[in-house]
What does this fold into?
Amino acid sequence: MRNNLLPIAKEGWNYVAGAVVAFIIFTFLDFNFLEFLMFLITIFFIFVFRNPEREYVLYQEDSVSSPVDGVVVSIEELHDDIHNGYKVEIDTSYFNVALLRVPFTSTLESIHITRGARLSAQNQLSNSINENAELVFCDTKSSNRITVVHKLKQSFKAIDIDIIKAQNLMYGSRYGLMINGTTTLYLPANFRLNIGLGSELSASETLVGYFTNESKK
It folds into this structure.
């Protein structure tokens, strides 16, 4: 994981540079329409790869912040053999900052990336074949953990994950990038939510909730 304090995320440098070069070439050749098109594309890339600084809010111990920018579109309570707790789905669009941030100081217990399609979320096949990344963050002291699943919708870029298994991570650190996708949080039964349907989340700044001392079921 490498911190980047520049205003454009490092994943977007090649896109912006390519668009700028094409703009200069079309300007030199006096291709007015293509020149204007590349100007718009350059602005688009600068916007979607923007890398704003975020304030690290000092929440209480065992707090969990949002790993992404977006809107909460679904909250479910789960009671099954795989998950016992809560499932929160967050929708991230092209208008949101695409950077992913560590939700709490933790260790990356596992990571699994599946490359695949980039279909619209309205397509029934998107749940099974779209590109996704599943990460499990664990607090080794308390054994509290959450599972985060990032899944692409229609996007021109693959999911970028810039951390490895067993890496120790600080809350709020950048760990990757996803442009236009959904993020699902699987939270344990001893978790208390601080968000609701329609809540607008900012990565590392919005409190999703916190772990309690209640025994895990």
Summary: Residues 63-211 form a domain with the Glucose Permease (Domain IIA) fold (CATH 2.70.70.10). The chain has two domains: 10-48, 63-211. The longest strand covers residues 70-79.
